């Protein structure tokens, strides 16, 4: 891997952008695929414009890539039609390049009965359609390695993404009612919930991609930040304070209007899909990064307060901004 070239699929998405930045910073030749031109690619990244479905064209353009990061994802309410076809396209592309395929995974496959600590040996027990889709996706990658269609595959599972832009639970839920003086949390404030600050997760991808100790198929957990709801809201309020965005009377704390969302889901598919995953806020869980430590050692994490401050700044801007 002296000529290290990585192809990032879905480079205009949140994780895709973070992955591009991390691989460029780590010295990789970085190819960034997206359907449309992205104005914010870092210096050193090369744009590949075109749909993932055009596997033949992308294979020609990405010649020499030894790693493919599958960061492309359909909209949340279209997973049932888009996720597995996109995965097959990514598998075909990585197979044609004879490259290792890497995927950012999640905890959906463990289901509502998941234990409090999730490690690489925790079995799948999906209890939702989205969980079953994620299991099918990982199974497709594992079978492609077994069948020789892929030289290798790596899934790095993580908690809920935040940071590196907007569009996460942090800004779509927790900070949504900030203008009315409220922070909103989707579950009980005393339950642990797994979070992944995207710049940290992306750096874990670069560390694993450069490892010479990879097995043909790897299932890896990224511990990230495990926070109770109260701890997260404390960090958010602290970040808002540093940005001068806490009102004189302070901020109230409220829960999600799940009943109203359930009723709204009768008409709005996105709300319906979000409500099906409510259990993730009620069942305490964190990830144990045992295999990641074996492959990459002790990777530094951005301190929670710093990570949350950066994410809050993405949402609200500096005071007066």
Report on the architecture of this protein:
This protein has 321 residues and is of the alpha/beta class. The protein has a domain at 5-160 and 196-223 and 286-294: NAD(P)-binding Rossmann-like Domain (Rossmann fold). Helices cover 38% and strands 19% of the residues. It has 11 helices and 14 strands. It has helices spanning 14-25, 55-61, 79-97, 129-146, 169-174, 198-209, 229-242, 258-264, 269-276, 290-296, 304-316, and strands at residues 5-9, 29-34, 45-49, 67-70, 100-105, 117-118, 153-157, 160-162, 182-185, 192-197, 217-221, 225-228, 252-255, 286-287. The strands form 4 sheets. Strands 3-2-1-4-5-7-11 form a 7-stranded parallel β-sheet, with helices on both faces. It has a 3-stranded mixed β-sheet with strand order 8-10-12. It has a two-stranded parallel sheet with strand order 6-14. β4 (67-70), α3 and β5 form a beta-alpha-beta unit. The chain is globular. The termini are far apart. 41% of the residues are buried.
């Amino acid at each position: 891997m002296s000529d290290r070239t990585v192809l990032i699929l879905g480079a205009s998405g949140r994780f895709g952008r973070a992955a591009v930045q991390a691989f460029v910073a780590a010295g990789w030749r970085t190819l960034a695929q997206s359907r449309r031109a992205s104005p914010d690619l870092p210096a050193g990244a090369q744009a590949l414009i075109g749909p993932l479905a055009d596997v033949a064209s992308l294979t020609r353009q990405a010649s020499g890539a030894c790693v493919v990061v599958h960061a492309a994802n359909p909209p949340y309410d279209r997973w049932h039609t888009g996720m597995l076809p996109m995965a097959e396209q990514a598998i075909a592309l990585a197979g044609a390049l004879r490259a290792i395929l890497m995927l950012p995974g999640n905890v959906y496959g463990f289901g509502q009965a998941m234990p409090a600590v999730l490690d690489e040996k925790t079995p799948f027990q999906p209890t939702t359609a989205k969980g079953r889709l994620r299991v099918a996706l990982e199974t497709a990658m594992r079978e492609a390695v077994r069948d020789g269609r892929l030289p290798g595959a790596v899934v790095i599972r993580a908690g809920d993404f935040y940071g590196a832009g907007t569009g996460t639970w942090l800004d779509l839920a927790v900070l949504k009612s900030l203008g009315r003086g409220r922070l909103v949390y989707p579950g009980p404030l005393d339950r642990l919930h797994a979070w992944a600050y995207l710049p940290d997760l992306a750096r874990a991808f670069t560390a694993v991609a450069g490892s010479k100790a990879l097995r043909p198929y790897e299932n890896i957990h990224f511990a990230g930040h495990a926070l109770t709801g109260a701890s997260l809201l404390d960090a958010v309020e602290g970040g808002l304070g540093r940005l001068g965005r806490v009102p004189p009377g302070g901020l109230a704390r409220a829960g999600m209007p799940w009943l109203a969302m359930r009723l709204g889901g009768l008409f709005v598919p996105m709300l319906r899909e979000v409500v099906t995953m409510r259990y993730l806020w009620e069942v305490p869980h964190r990830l144990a990064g045992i295999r990641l430590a074996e492959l990459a050692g002790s990777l530094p994490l951005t301190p929670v307060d710093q990570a949350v401050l950066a994410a809050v700044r993405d949402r609200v801007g500096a005071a007066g901004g």
